[in-house]
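Q: Protein A?
A:
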Amino acid sequence: MIETIRNAWKIPELRKKLMFTAFILLIFRLGNAVPVPYINTGLLATYFDSASNTIFGLMNAMSGGAFGAATVFALGIQPYINSSIIIQLLTIAIPALERMQKEGGEEGRKKIAAITRYTTVAIGLLQGLGYYWLIRNGNGSGQSFLDNGGLPDLWVGLVIVLTFTAGSAFVMWLGEQITEFGIGNGISIILFAGIVSRVPQMVEAIIVGIQNWATGSTAVGAFKLHPVGAVAIVIGMLALVVFIVFISNAERRLRVQYAKRMVGRKMYGGQSTHIPMKVNMSGVMPIIFAQSIASLPATIAAFIPGSGDSLFMKLFDTTSIFYIVIYFLLILGFGYFYATIQFNPIEVANNLKKNGGFIPGIRPGKPTAEFIQTVLNKITLFGSLYLSVIAIAPIVTGAAIGLSTLAIGGTSVIIVVSVALETVKALEAQMLMRHYKGFLE
């Protein structure tokens, strides 16, 4: 990865893109440090420290700590992710949207993007309103987190909600700028930056746990971690990274043979190639989408006053069995959903038939499409199970040892590694394209 970035830096055009991306991320991190007015952030931070293993802890991790500090970018990229999920599902359910996406060309894609933006603003407005209710009522704790200084509640609420909404819309815009003028994959890179910024806090939690074990701390709720356990966590994380990289690069290759044909006096065809089918075809998107959907009911309920200790909230606790099962099933479902969108066996089979290609032992046409579909189902099942197991393993481990940040950190590792791999591949593709362009010129 470092070597790829170093090589990209040598190309003036890519260097500008890298600098632009770094500048956008700097703005994102600065926005995470700007507090929203009329909020007692000290009391709010104390409350979030006690709710680290709830849905709020997860939202705080995904936003890079901005959610717990009630900053301008507190809602982060989550409204846009939820909006993308809704629009993609509606595109399949509503024929008019499907035609707009497939047959509308560039103009159709622009309309879909505009609808997604408007939906993002609407979701950001709803989440901002819910967060304001939480701040105002203390989620049943009996203590408000507002610091309005004698100003009317209506004015204070309007400023807070609109600030949160504007912040989420601005984060969406930052991601789009990275996609258009930076190195690409903007939304994922914004999410990547937010997660990476939380790594020092996770390391600090492990160090404090070791110190508490060494000193024999008797404080109520003090987390203790044996040094052997800390070493096991580090080794496990490194092994997780290696395994993610291995599976991300794994692919099933379908051998394709092209028939020989005479054109004039020349013989064409006869060569053998393959169709690459990635084991994890959908990348990190099933994790991100499943996380958003699984946390949605608890997110809505959490903003309702007095719901903090309810049975519903305990069911959707990030370490509960119910949440783990739902999370597991959603990753499986989204894995198949994205594989279906990205790879069409019928289209591949038709293209092979038109170009005189065939899979040895399989007749061209419908039998080829059925064979490719069977292979796709098998590798998608393996890829989805891989994502599901890798996602829930740290959650189970974190619940067993009492380290909630490990549960959140496990999912974060998958997102961080996957986004890093996708970014490196995008840079390599851009460098290769410029290499051939210079060669042709």
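Q: Protein B?
A:
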Amino acid sequence: MSKYFGTDGFRGEANVDLTVEHAFKIGRFLGSYFAKDGRRSSIVIGKDTRLSSYMYECALTAGITASGADAYLMHVTTTPSVSYIARSEDFDCGIMISASHNPYHDNGIKLLNCNGEKMEDNIISAIEAYLDGASPEPPLATGDSIGRAIDHSAGRNRYIGYLISLATHSYKGMRVGLDCANGSTWSIAKNVFDALGAETYVIGNSPTGTNINMDCGSTHLGALQRLVREKHLDVGFAFDVDADRCLAVDEHGEKVDGDAIIYICGKHMKEKGSLANNTVVTTVMSNFGLYKALDFCGINYEKTAVGDKYVYENMRANGHLLGGEQSGHIIFSKYATTGDGLITAIKLMQVMLDRKMSLAALREGLTVYPQVLKNVKVTDKDITMNDPDVKAACNKVTELLGDEGRILLRKSGTEPLLRVMVEAPTHEMCEQQVDYVIEAMRSKGLLITIK
């Protein structure tokens, strides 16, 4: 685990954990790092709608231009759009200012390479060494070598055009709800769906800088569910603040999460002969019911660690075309190198219109198993994971559940916690088996508290 950067960037409370000085220095480093053989580097920047994003945009721009590079500003836009522009317009790298689903007082800096992928670990390590003062200051540009800050809102418009080009049907006659989480899609999503002919109803499209995710977006589906039911809509889509996630709501107002999206799209792609390797990629946190449904459909699957970064790495290494997380990070690698909420919505619309079926009907065949997850603080994560009695308890649960459930014991990447998760036919059985494993930790003196 890196000191500053996690799997989704450098994230923390604005001006507490992540300061303007951090942003300035990251800009300084990147502007200098990519300036090889006297060539002026160019970096594209996007931001979400939270209050502090403007501050970080200024700080990053100052650092980039001070090192002699040019900063191209897409302004308020989505993470996937920055990824698309970075790879399609030959930028040296892209930066997205966002803390995604975190509260408004947090913010983050996500770094993307020239292919629109998460930045390479060796560059992240070099940035962290510089932030800690372990490497020298990059030279300051002077005279006509000082970089420029350039408006690049045209890049956002190019991305909108790209999205529209991916649709294979007119949406005329479709009534669609969109929840923009008061985030980056507030000025994009409606334009796309209107252009494709849908009758759109939009909520979460009045950002103030402090109301992101406030009872809206993919982390709070209630408002979209009510909208779909009250307006009798065909479907609803909820994005997170930087729009790399999408969850859906069917015509009855019922949640369709990332696992269901993978099931629906994977099954459709298989039937059309377009599911490369007959395989989808999930994380270990996907519901057991998804795997049962995929088995029934004859679709193979691979499991990665939690994080869309790991999903994409697996897809890229093995040539898979569909993967994602239960939370709504869905990657269609033929069209994007990151999770893209708007592409996910467009691909779901395609399945509905191709098959002439509702989202609820398309979801049939997927039974979600009850799940209980408890976080336990322990004296030592590795010692607890490897304790013979704890391992024996996990093995006994596995044996008891057979092919009707599973147990997952995994370490938190950021806290002294273990996560104990059981999926089984009933909620009561989940509770019993989770508590059984936790009791094994308690009896060995390894448990501090249950959080």
